[in-house]
Design goal:
The structure is a single chain. It contains twelve helices and 13 strands. With 394 residues, it is α/β, with parallel strands linked by helices. The strands form four sheets. It has a seven-stranded parallel sheet, sandwiched between helices. It has a two-stranded antiparallel ribbon with strand order 1-2. Strands 7-8 form a two-stranded antiparallel ribbon. The two termini are 24 Å apart. The protein binds nicotinamide-adenine-dinucleotide and sodium ion. The site of nicotinamide-adenine-dinucleotide has 29 residues, from helix 2, strand 4 and strand 11.
Length: 394
């Protein structure tokens, strides 16, 4: 079929297999250009492995450290005349490249919150890899069906206690406007913690350990975010921030549980980037457009793959793992540099619909957004038929 972008607000309903393949091969090429990570992982499980930071983690593991990888994710397969979601095509491309290099790579598509998918993953590890030495937890989900009670929880992105009002941008039109978001209820906070807190990460590690598929000295890492002052009321001090607090606390709990096998759990605070998860959050796209401008000007801009390669090379596998006062790895260090934040904050005060084209990197934002779905590559002819019915090799 001929596949063109079909955008509805902050999501795109279509994805292009060749463009997604390009996203993956570009990340593989970057990883190869950086070279082998000394003392990197060997058998890696990535939960949330099909897009964003999780996909980058899988690529760095495989192509920067020759790792065998198992990827878990929740993607829609293609149907006749209806393309799959991007993570599906990303995985098709990833497995193809990994297998061509002689690397083990298998994937499980289903709900990571469920007991069934956890069991399936364990069965696969037992039959193929035996033990895992790195577990990356990179889920971003708006909802969770509780594995024991089947109760459904929905996460919200709202401030706590006080109405939030600030600038935001419609990144398609470039219109800057004010957004007003009413505070959430206590129940919404708790639901958000259920979905995006550390409960499921802990469940994964509990069951992996109980089934004896974790290597001695194994590591597990989950991803968090802190961000600037302008987004603090809606992000870090809001409902989602409470879930991130919970996730960060879970790292200590999990480390305690892994003590007897000398394992450790860490949270890495990553940089703000355009992903399907972040484009849905109000205010963040405007912040990211200004941040991209400032970071590109200073020559310190990174995408998911640059972030994760640097995380592996300079933090996770470089001997002593450096952390902040809260025990977190900070790979958002360049985003949070005072000169970068000062610049963003000055631009933030000035930005309007009229000047956003000049003072923000809105074009960079849009390009990254369309690339998430495989669109916007000059080297691809989007008027040509492409096979939408691609299967993950397995
Ligand atoms: P993403 O949307 O690109 O990736 C989410 C992944 O989770 C996908 O692989 C998806 O298939 C999978 N997933 C979602 N629900 C699932 C389910 N029920 N079962 C199995 N898999 C499921 O998101 P991302 O931006 O890469 O986010 C990953 C983590 O990084 C999140 O914890 C996020 O908060 C964090 N983070 C993101 C940013 C950012 O700016 N994007 C910054 C710092 C930290
Ligand atoms: Na991810």
């Amino acid at each position: 079929m001929i596949i063109k972008p079909r955008v509805r607000g902050f999501i795109c309903l279509t994805a292009h297999p060749e463009g997604c393949e390009k996203n993956v091969t570009n990340q593989i090429d970057f990883t190869k250009s950086k070279g082998e990570i000394a003392d990197g992982p060997k058998n890696v499980l990535v939960i949330g492995a099909s897009t964003g930071f999780g996909l980058a983690s899988r690529i760095v593991s495989a192509f920067g450290s020759d790792s065998s990888t198992i990827g878990v994710f929740f993607e829609k397969p293609p149907m006749e005349g209806k393309p799959a979601t991007p993570g599906w095509y990303n995985t098709v491309a990833f497995e193809k490249e990994a297998h061509a290099k002689g690397l083990y790579a298998k994937s499980i598509n289903g709900d990571a919150f469920s007991n069934e998918i956890k069991q399936k993953t364990i069965d696969l590890i037992k039959s193929d890899l035996k033990k895992i030495d790195l577990v990356i937890y990179s889920l971003a989900s708006p909802r969770k069906v509780h594995p024991d009670t089947q109760q459904v929880y929905n996460s919200v992105i709202k401030p706590i206690g006080k109405t939030f009002e600030n600038k935001t941008v419609d990144f398609h039109s470039g219109t800057v406007s004010n957004v007003v978001i009413e505070p959430c209820t206590e129940e919404e906070v708790n639901n958000t913690i259920e979905v995006m807190g550390g409960d499921d990460w802990e469940r994964w590690i509990d069951v992996l350990k109980k089934e004896d598929v974790l290597s001695p000295e194994c590591l597990t890492v989950a991803y968090s975010y802190v961000g600037p002052e302008v987004t603090t009321p809606i992000y870090r001090n809001g409902s989602i921030g409470r879930a991130k607090d919970h996730l960060e606390q879970s790292a200590f709990k999990i480390s305690e549980k892994l003590k007897d096998i000398d394992g450790k759990a860490y949270v890495s605070v990553n940089k703000a980037l355009v992903t399907q998860a972040s484009s849905a959050i109000p205010v963040i796209p405007l912040y990211i457009s200004l941040l991209y401008k400032a970071m590109k000007e200073e020559g310190v801009h990174e995408g998911c793959i640059e972030q994760i390669y640097r995380l592996f090379e300079t933090k996770l596998f470089s001997g002593e793992i450096p952390t902040d006062e809260k025990g977190r790895i900070r790979i958002d260090d360049w985003e949070m540099r005072p000169d970068i934040q000062e610049k963003v904050s000055q631009l933030w005060d000035k930005v309007t619909t009229e000047n956003i084209g000049e003072i923000a990197d809105l074009e960079g934002y849009r390009n990254d957004f369309f690339k998430l779905f495989g669109f916007g590559y000059d080297s691809i002819d989007y008027d040509v038929e492409v096979n939408e019915l691609q299967e993950i090799p397995g």
